[in-house]
Design brief:
Blueprint: E1 2-7, E2 10-15, H1 20-23, E3 27-31, E4 35-41, E5 51-57, E6 61-67, E7 73-79, E8 84-93, E9 96-102, H2 106-117
């Protein structure tokens, strides 16, 4: 669904072609300096609450943008069988406050981002 890498101080999240209509982009680029916090989430789908624009298959997958009642806008690409990361940004970047991403090695991605951001 998604591939992540750090290039030149920027976290690059590249979305699979089938997810792009729901997230409305091919990739998301976030400078590491704009990342305030990275949390590992055992069930990243549960983080996405509120109104949404995108794909929702209840209990299985969420892909798109979710806006919570508190106004926090999350870009979500999460599935049931993968843990993930919740990346909290210092300010709104590309009209997003947080990223919620299912990735194969969530603790590894967390360590990579926090290590590069140190």
């Amino acid at each position: 669904m998604i591939q992540t890498e750090i290039r030149d101080g920027i976290l690059v999240a590249t979305f699979a072609p089938w997810t792009r209509p729901f997230v409305r982009r091919a990739e998301m680029r976030v400078p590491l300096t704009a990342i305030r916090e990275v949390r590992v989430e055992a069930n990243p789908q549960a983080v996405a609450t509120g109104t949404h624009a995108g794909l929702l298959v209840s209990g299985f997958i969420k892909v798109g943008t979710w806006t919570g009642l508190n106004g926090v806008r999350r870009l979500v690409c999460a599935r049931r069988d993968l843990s993930g990361v919740r990346i909290v940004l210092t300010g709104r970047t590309e009209n997003v406050d947080e990223l919620v991403l299912s990735v194969p090695d969530a603790p590894g991605l967390q360590a990579e981002i926090m290590g590069a951001n140190a």
